[in-house]
Amino acid sequence: MLFLDLETRSACDLIFHGLRRYAEDPTTEVICMAYAFEDEDIQLWWAHEPFPQPVLDHFTSGGAITAHNGEFERHIFEWVIAPEYDFTPPKLEQWRCSMAISLTNGFAGGLDALAIGVGLPFRKHTEGARLIREYCKTGHNDIFKPEYADDRVLMGDYCISDVEVMRAAVKCLRPLTDEEWEEYHLNCRINERGLPIDVDFCMAALGYTQEVAEDANRQIAELTGGKMTKATQRKARDEWLFPKLTEYQMKLLEVYKKGEKKISLDADHRKYLLECEDLDDDARRLLEYIDNAGSSALKKFAVAAHQHVKGRVHNTFLWNGAGRTGRFSGKGLQPHNIRRDVFDHDQAETLIKDILAGYEIDTPADTMARLLRAMIRSDEGLYYVDWSSIEGRVAPWLSKSDPGDKKLDLFRAGRDIYVVTAASMFNVSEASVDKTFRQSGKIAELSLQFGGSHNALIGMAKNYGVTFEEDEARDIVIKWRRANPWAEEIWADYDRAISGAVRNPGIDYPVGRVIYHSDGANFLWCRLPSERLLSYPKPRFEPYMTPWGEEKIGATFQTHFKPAAGEPPLRNHARGALLFQNTVQAVAADCLREALLRADDEGLEIVGHVHDEIIGLGSREDGERLNNIMLERPWWSDGLPIATGGVEHGKRYGK
Question: What is the pTM of this model?
Answer without folding.
Answer: 0.88
